[in-house]
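Next comes a concrete protein, fold included:
___
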Amino acid sequence: MDRTVVVRPDEGRLLDLGNFEARVIVDGPETEGAFSLIQTRREPPGFGPPLHRHQDAAEAFYVLEGTYQVFADDQQHECPPGTFVYVPRAAPHTFQVVSSTPGVKLNLFAPAAMVGFFAELSIAEATGRATPELLDRIAHDNRMEVLGPVPDSYL
């Protein structure tokens, strides 16, 4: 692809994941596989995924709203709006919304990754089939390894 990509605020593909939403801003086809950029929003207080690692991509977060507690490298980091976090490929990590208001953040995966995970999980949520076992399979299919129990607030 040899063209500029512009995505306006109301554009992108919206995925309803039950407890939260993911808006795919760009993915591999638009970035020549360099990165995926997803905005996650409506992440309620107490929300967070299980401890996990991405086998094929580094992940970065940029917090826009709410406050997150990020767990990585055996440390905890409080992350208010404006915080940037970089997690290297294969590093175990997770997060939890610790503010009393919902969280919104940008998630960058490099190289492009994880859009398939969110898309498949959205379908499972819409059909009422989302279970920890299915989450584990979807994660595996998308080169993500679930390392800890799935919090009740995630599915």
Observations:
- Helices lie at 28-31, 115-126, 132-141.
- The chain has a mean pLDDT of 95.
